[in-house]
Amino acid sequence: MKDFLWWRDGVIYQIYPRSFSDSSNDGIGDLQGIIEKLDYLQALGIDAIWLSPINPSPDVDFGYDVSDYTGIDPKFGTMKDFEHLVKEAKKRDIHIIMDLVLNHTSDQHAWFLKSKQSKENAHHDFYIWKDPKPDGEPPNNWQAVFGGPAWEYDEDLGQYYYHMFFKEQPDVNWRNPEVRSAMLDVFRFWLDKGVEGFRLDVFNAYFKDPEFKDNPPKFGIRGFDRQEHIYDVSQPEMYPLLEEIRTIVDEHKQSYVVGETFLADTQQTASYCGNDKLHAAFNFDFAENRWHPQRFLDSVLKWYDALAADAWPNNFLSNHDMKRAASRYCFGEDDSRAKVALAMLLTLKGTPFLYYGEEIGMRDIPIRKRADIKDPIGKHFWPFYKGRDGCRAPMQWRNAPHAGFSLAEPWLPVNDNYTKRNVEMQLSDPNSMLNFSMKLISIRRSTPALIRGDFTPLTEQPRFILAYERQYEGDRVIVILNFSSRLLNFELPKGGWTCLLTKNTAYTGKISMAPYQVRILEKKV
Ligand code: GLC
Known about the structure:
Oligo-1,6-glucosidase, domain 2, alpha/beta, 6-stranded antiparallel beta sheet, TIM Barrel, 3 domains, 525 residues, single chain, globular
C-alpha cells in the first residue's frame, strides 16, 4: 500500500520480555531470545514490537518499578543487545516501542534514595512528600491501587510520600521542572537509540490535584474502588505535557506514542489523542466486553465517535494486566471464538495490538495456590483476585521441555497444553489458530480497505452475527462474524462478492454462516 505508515496501518505486537524466549537459560526471557524470534515475528507479519519494560528494576511490579530509565536490566541483557535488537528488527521492517513508566519510579531509583535523605536535599522534591495532618494521619484520604492507603510514612523525615501503586513505587513530582525535563530526556535518549515508539504507563496519573483534596466517597468493595478518583488522576495539566512530548517525538519522523489511560472512560481516553497529543490511547471499554456482538459494536462505535478527526483508532483484546481474550471467551481448547475475536480485531478500523501468544490462542495458566503466585497483587488480594500471572506465562514454542521457551525451569510455569498448543505444531496444521492469524494479517496487509477504510456496520443490534463494511477509495470489503454456535443466514449487500479467506468463490444474496464462521468478502469489480 502506498504511504503505508507502520503505527497506523500495521499490526503491533506486545512482548512481555520475561516470558517470550530465554536464550541464556536462566528461566527468564531476554533480548537475545527476542532477536532469535524476529524471523518468526516477520513471518507472522507484524510491524512493531511493544516491549514491556526492560529497564533495571527490583521487580516488585515486574519491571513497572524502574530504577534506571536509561539502562537495560542485566537479566534481559546489555545495551549492546538492545542495539542489536533494534538493528535486526529494522532489517525486517519491525519498529520498536518502549514502555515508559514515568508516573513512578522504583524506591531503589537513585532519585528516591536521595529524595529521602533529607528535606533539604536537591532531590527531595522529585517525589510527593507531605507533612502529616496535626493528628499524625496521612495528608488526605487517597488510596493505593494495589491496596491500603497511598501514603507511606517515613520515620526519619517525619513525612509521608505518595504512591499510587505499591509503596515501592513512589510517584514522582511532575510539577517539579527538573523532573519534567529529566523525564523528557528519557524520550530523547531512546529515540536516539533508534526506538520509534513509546507506550506510556498510566500517563494520566502523572499530575495530581495541586491542593491534594480528598476524593469523594462512592460505593465500592475495596478501599480504592470506594472513591471517586477526581483528584488523583486525569488532571488538566496533562494536556500541555502531552503537547511537549509530542513535539519531541515528532522530531523523529514516523515516531509514535500510545498511552495507557487509567480509570478513564472512552471520552476521556479519546480526549488525549490527536495531532498535538498522543497518537493513540488504549480503549479498555472495548477490551473488557463480554462475548456479545452488540457489546463490541457499541464499544467501537463509541470509540470512533469520541475520537477527534485527527486521531486514528486502535484496538486490543489482551495485555499483560488482564485475562487473555482466549481464556475469557473460549470453551476449553476450542479456538472457534478466539478466531472470531482475532478476525474482528484485525478487520475493525484501527491499529490492532496483539499480545504475545494470542496468535496461537494461548490460554492463561491456572493459579491454584497463593504460594505459587509471583504477582504481588495476586498475593495481596488472594483469594478474591489471583493477580496477573495467568496471562504472563512463557510463550509456547515447541513440544519440548518448558515448551522450548528455556532449558531451565521458567519463572512461571508453562501452560500444560503446550504439548499440543505451540508454534511449531500449529505451523504445520493448516487449520490452526496460527495459520489463521497469519492469513488474516496477510489479507489485511494486502487489502487497503481493511487498513484504512471507513467503517459502516451492516448489522443493527446484532445478537449473533456482527457484520460491517470497510470502504477505501472505491474498494469495498465486508466482514461477517458469527458470534454464535448456530447455523445462520446472512443477506449480503447487493452485487457479487469474492471471499478473501478461501479465495475466488463468488457470492450473491443470502449466504449461510456456520457456527463461529468468519467471512471476509471483497466486492467484485
Ligand atoms: C500499568 C501497568 C501495570 C503496572 C501498573 C503500575 O497499569 O500496565 O502492569 O502494574 O501500571 O506501574
